[in-house]
Amino acid sequence: MNSLTSRITVALLALLLVGLGALSMTALSMLRSDLETMLGQQQFSTVRMAADAIGVALQQRIDALAQLGASLPSAPAARRAALHAHSGASGRYLGLQLLGADGTVLASNGIDGVDPALRQAVLADGRPRIGRAGGGARAGQPEQIRFVLTIALPGADGGRTATLTAVSALEREGFLAPYSLRAYGQTGGYMLVAPGERLVLAATSGRIGSAALPAPGSNALVERFVAGYEGSGTARNLQGVEVLASAKRIGLANWYLAAALPTQEAYAPVAAMQQRLLLAAATLLLLVGALAWWTLRQQLAPVQRALRALGRINAGSAVPQPLPNSGRHEIGALIDAFNQLLATASQREAALQQSERTLFDILEHADGYVYLKDRAGRYLFANRPVRTLFGRSMADIIGHDDSLFFDAATVAALQRTEAPVWEQGQTVRTEETTHNQHGVAAIYQSVKLPLRDQAGTIYAMCGISHDITERRAAEAALRIAAISFESVAAIVILDARLRILRANQAFSRITGYLPGTLDGRRITLLDAAQPGQPSYRSLWRSLRRHGAWQGSLWQRRRDGSLFYASGSLTAVHDESGQVSHYVCHLLDATDDARREQQRRRDELAQREALVREVHHRIKNNLQGITGIQRQCAAQHPDTAAPIQTAIDQVQSISVIHGLRGRARSASVRLCELTQAICEQVAQSRQTPVRFVMPTPWQAWHVAENEAVPLALVLNELIVNAAKHGGAAHDGVDVRLAPGQQPDSVCVTIRNHGQLGNDYRHKGPPHNGLDLVSALMPPAGAHLDFRQEHDTVIIALECEPPIISRTDPDLPPPP
């Protein structure tokens, strides 16, 4: 078996055997499956025909019993005689019984009683029933299976008034004989089963008597048949023989007929085919083995000749010569390749020497310090940087240890570092501080690894070192800068897209953000967007334009609270002059800002108190003027009407000063102004003026320079409505509501009356509307008149800049 030809032949035969075996097993498995399906279908077809025949026979006996019941005479004695004639030893049945609907025995012969439940079921639906009547044994004979047939007899009125029951024995019924004696196949047979009682009523053995089915759960296929399954399957019987079985229900009796055939008989063709396949496979293996051995021996003959030639070459000291080759196939190609390998061996030797020279050149020009040492610590190789460092030639370095170049402490430290390389074969990475013979110190980052021969023995150590003295000095400077970075002021480093790269502890303490949680996020998340301070967009535009920014603005902490930040932003440029980073310095000046805000609030409170006093005195003076005007009207009745108009106008102006005297600033709210004018007109004109405003309501403030004109316009419109609507027409309705346009408010005035065709006429009859037209602002207000039935509707819609949502005098919140 050491021959390659023999091993290949055996391997080929083994593969062929495995392939043939797998193919045979697959084919036989598929054949068995197909045969099982086909035999099961044939078997079930046979059982179905037999079960249908038994069902037809049972139906015939039910029909005969129905004919007997229809022919029974009405006289009791005659009925008993008729029943006796059809039962007993000479009759067709073992016994007959006629029962009334109430269970009264009308006539009986050979039956002691009938199952009441069976009889009630027949009376309920009129359908005949077949049940088991129990067994009876005769002397010297086995127990026989008896069954009852019960039918309902109709009365004269069409109802079911009586039942007729007949008892029969299976052994006396000829319709079971063909199936109880006939075999199915050579070793199979039939079986008639009552699944409700789990009894075998008849079997191929010829015995008719009660035999129990296997215990529940012991045979899965039997349990499926008992549960009502109709079809085929494979299982093992009580004797342990595997059988192919099929079952079909007999509906009239709730029985089923089963047929079973041992699988050994059923699948006999498969077994025979398997034997023939094995014989054919064995013959094929012998033929293929012999042919393969002869073919391989012929094909491998050049290899044998080449091996003999190699043996001669290995035994002698001559230069290897090309191997003999006479083949033109793969083996010949292999020998040719070996001959080419021999031809290029010298070339590879030259290439190896060239590779060594190339490696030496690379090590010579490497920036790091590369050297080799033997186990005694003597140098075997030193590249150009090492020779430059020591100031020696290669010949002066090789063969000497470190004591020639370093002081005693450095030599001892180097020996401790290199010990794990020699003792455990470890690769050591470390930093070394050396002092040469002149006391000059240097720091090196070194890697020292063992070099092993083919046996795995460490014969040398390779060291690669880099001078990191300047880098350590730079790192020390960076540590000092890092300590300076962690100052009291918050310092943030941003990239050119304003994303946070790094922030110190002071920034975390001021803003509440943990270190590192803001990395990569834009610093604009701190923007509090307070009124009166520059936006981030304008701030960054200024920064990009001038390269620096300094100022103060409100910012938002992580918990949502505000703080007043005072600081600066400086751009950092790269070598090309482009902005690469921004450096931000921040100080928390919240306390100073709050003190400044408190100072401003105190000044504002003093100013407001002074303003309120001034407006209060102006209001009092205006009220004095209205008193003088009323005295003039009383003394000169013919001027009462124009004087009253002047009084109304003066009072509308006094309303403005009254509101300003109560407010905390000079701003006047539109809702308060309209309500005050309504109250003033209602009092002076003695007319109901109802003011309505929805709730909740957003306060709108009137521009300071438009407060007096707007008050005069509202006064003229409401006075005109009160004059024409009057108390006789249920007064005037004034409503404040949002306007049709965004950020607008509409004042609607309703009163009873009619608009004339000349209501926009300029002249004395309409001097009130002329005043309104003269006082209307050029922008921000619109007046509309319309008539709805007998109601005049005036709509005054105001929008910015006449009104605004915020009070410009209020300081921003802290």
Give a concise summary:
By secondary structure, this protein is an alpha+beta fold. It is built from 21 helices and 30 strands.
Structure explained in plain terms:
The protein has 814 residues and is of the alpha+beta class. 44% of the residues lie in helices and 25% in strands. The protein contains 21 helices and 30 strands. Strand 1 and strand 2 form a beta hairpin. The protein is flat and about 150 Å long. The protein starts with a helix and ends in a 10-residue tail after the last strand.
Secondary structure blueprint with pairings:
Elements (H helix, E strand, L loop, with lengths): L3 H68 L4 H10 L9 E6 L4 E5 L6 H10 L3 E8 L7 E11 L5 E10 L7 H5 L1 E2 L3 E7 L4 E5 L4 E5 L7 H7 L4 E6 L5 E9 L4 E8 H4 L1 H32 L1 H15 L14 H14 L1 H21 L3 E5 L5 E4 L1 H7 L3 H4 L10 H17 L3 E8 L5 E12 L5 E10 L1 H17 L4 E6 L4 E4 L1 H7 L24 H11 L1 E9 L5 E12 L5 E10 L1 H46 L4 H23 L5 E2 H16 L3 E4 L8 E2 L4 H19 L6 E7 L6 E8 L14 H9 L5 E8 L2 E8 L4 E2 L10
Parallel strand pairs: 24-26
Antiparallel strand pairs: 1-2, 1-5, 3-4, 4-5, 6-7, 7-8, 7-12, 8-9, 10-11, 11-12, 13-14, 13-17, 15-16, 16-17, 18-19, 18-22, 20-21, 21-22, 23-25, 25-30, 26-27, 27-29, 28-29
Helix pairs in contact: 1-7, 17-18, 18-19, 18-20, 19-20, 20-21
